[in-house]
Design goal:
The structure is a homodimer of 322-residue chains. The first copy, chain A, has 322 residues and is of the alpha/beta class. Chain A contains 10 helices and 19 strands. The radius of gyration of chain A is 20 Å and the shape is globular.
Chain lengths: 322, 322
């Protein structure tokens, strides 16, 4: 493949989304250059747009690409997903296989690393995962958020058939409900949107739109509401000695009544990115209906319209295709 | 022993502390009647005085007594401490040996159960623990709060020599620091009062009064500040994948920035009462200097003055003796 000298890429700065021509990035040793096949707009991207983390640059961290240049010839031409935390591989975190917490890390499209809303993107070879043929390119965009959903099961050991309440019916809530259901847990998903909960229902997941919710009942509650009230509600629904998993990134301070946390001795677990391997295996198994979460597809050149659509209340996953 | 028909008892109502003459309580089957030898005023008692939980009645839950009547003759004359959660012994919590979380429980001197700031008190026989001769009556008053300190070690498995930051140098903070230190952990206690931290220092515990504290450093941080800011500070000092233990009961809502909890995947564990057996063993071992926490001793009849003294900023443990 003859590589071009320049590429199109999305640029975010102070709320403005533009598509720019940029030089093709120079590939450092250890990195692979990927041609982006498809990418997804995540809530984090919308937060970057709103100016959180003082971000300015190329966003995008959910993507599938094809390797066009790499040190290891075997990667050439492979369809891949890439883990988004680029670690130093020399600190104590990295040596403990917790590269995702490496204090020296950059994060693709989020922290000091140009992202995947572009025709080409750089990713360290050690972060690459081949996408198996059973997974379509569109579905494979969900590997990264599904890995974040599966992270819960890496952090907390939950016995099969255990009741788990999932709060929220947005993109992440829907993936979490499906992932936990696929792992044999008894998921009850609570949300306000009957149409979105239909996606979970179609997978055999119990859903509930009532605002009159059981108190102190569930041994595990996942807050994926994305709202400041979600944590309070999750705590109220959790039974004594139970565990609340925090998946909602909310900006600013969230009010929490610590009295029930202490009196009922609850455990609260913050949960972020996860390993890609379990997510890839789960998608390949056909037990996750990621395609049902796709709400629209835009060309990379239409990124401003794509961001606008993604920001509309209730929109599920918007894909970008270079 | 010929029992009197009436007794003196402390009564709390809407902030007013009074000493009243009350009928001796009638002993139900399964309960022991104890003559109170000594009791301690806890921060919770001061909160009850301030009207939290809408409490009105006889407070007191840290105490040592002598059994004067019981179904089991072997208890007669024994010096005892009593676990404060009176459980139903028939629900699923009780069957799982988590009587402290029994939803039908009453709580001595706190919830629907007259407390120990009285000449006599009723306690179920199954809640009694004999106080070994090595433990003085004054020290034995600390069994209940020390059990709350030891509860941390029942909830969280911490390897010996692991660094643990304890925030707060109040009564509970001092007991927690001593308990964790006695268990071989590397405790660093942070507080504002050099005089109180001297107690910990005397036990060989590392202390620190600086407000310039390490960020993201400790794998375990215990918040025993009793302040709304404590949780935020504990989260800031905890390293990625670390655990924050919540021991501060603060009323109303506490602001928390959930972003670092999620990004660093912290675990927050609420912690309340504990089993008495480990606390008794620890006191009997002589490795806890509970007596150094005693700030004063009052007769039961002087309870109003005792409460006033206990409420003064910086006062450690005030004892009441009938």
């Amino acid at each position: 493949m003859n590589l071009p000298l320049a590429m199109q890429a999305v640029h975010l700065n102070q709320g403005r989304v533009s598509v720019r021509t940029m030089p093709l990035p120079a590939r450092p040793a250890g990195y692979a250059l990927l041609r982006v096949l498809c990418a997804g707009i995540c809530s984090t991207d919308l937060e970057l747009q709103r100016g959180y983390y003082g971000f300015a640059g190329v966003p995008g961290h959910e993507f599938v690409g094809e390797v066009v240049e790499s040190d290891t010839p075997a990667w050439h031409g492979k369809r891949v997903a890439g883990e988004i935390n680029f670690a130093c591989h020399s600190c104590s975190w990295c040596r403990s296989e917790l590269e995702r917490h490496c204090p020296n890390r950059t994060v693709l499209g989020i922290v000091n690393q140009p992202g995947a809303f572009a025709e080409f993107v750089l990713v360290p070879e050690s972060n690459l995962h081949e996408v198996p043929g059973e997974i379509s390119t569109e579905q494979a965009v969900f590997i990264e958020p599904l890995a974040a959903a599966c992270e819960i099961l890496d952090q907390v050991t939950i016995e099969p058939k255990t009741p788990v309440a999932v709060l929220g019916d947005g993109k992440l809530g829907l993936l979490i409900a499906q992932a936990l259901h696929a792992h044999g847990l008894h998921v009850v998903q609570y949300g306000r949107h009957a149409d979105k909960l239909e996606i979970s229902k179609g997978q055999g997941i119990e859903t509930n739109t009532s605002s009159d919710r059981p108190r102190k009942e569930f041994p595990y509650v996942v807050d994926a509401t994305g709202s400041a009230e979600g944590l309070k509600e999750a705590v109220a629904m959790c039974r004594p000695r139970g565990t609340v998993i925090l998946k909602s990134t909310v900006h600013g301070e969230v009010p929490i009544d610590t009295a029930p946390v202490i009196v009922d001795e609850l455990t609260l677990v913050g949960s972020r990115c996860g390993r890609f391997a379990p997510a890839i295996a789960l998608l390949a198994s056909g037990r996750i209906r990621a395609d049902s979460l796709i709400a629209g597809e835009f060309a990379l050149s239409e990124a401003p319209a794509a961001f606008q659509k993604a920001a509309e209340k209730g929109t599920l996953k918007i894909l970008l295709k270079p």
